Amino acid sequence: MSETREFVALGESDTLALGGELAGLFAGGGIVYLSGDLGVGKTTLVRGLLRALGFEGRVKSPSYGLIESYVIDGREIHHLDLYRLGHGEEIAYLGLEDLLTEGSLLLVEWPERGEGWLPAADWRIEIDDREGGGRTIRVQR
Q1: Following CA atoms 53, 58, 63, 66 in sequence, which dihedral angle do they give, to the nearest 10 degrees?
Q2: Which of 77, 83, 85, 102 has the fewest other C-beta atoms within 10 Å?
Q3: Is the pLDDT of residue 53 over 80?
Q4: How far apart are CA 28 and CA 14, in angstroms?
């Protein structure tokens, strides 16, 4: 990973808009790690991305089910939330190899919980609270 871009989101609408802007980056598929504390907007960013790709349904955090999958214009997008994993080894039971098809996009929240068990990321997105309000969002490839 060599290039990092930094953005500032002052609220939910900024985070949704940035997700929409990032949709073009992931047009060919790949693996995206999303890191940040609880409530910083990881799922909001994913919602903006999915909306930009044409998904109109409800986008919810996959915290309890671990995986939410979407098919948009024949393209598979899988949103994972590993927060509730007890050990990275549990990833072996999720069937990730079945999700990694040609052109699929894998969006992984809390990737540090699956360290050593996840495939390498093509992009990393880190979201942090900013002093004075809002969020700093770093996108690294």
Answers
A1: -60
A2: 102
A3: yes
A4: 24
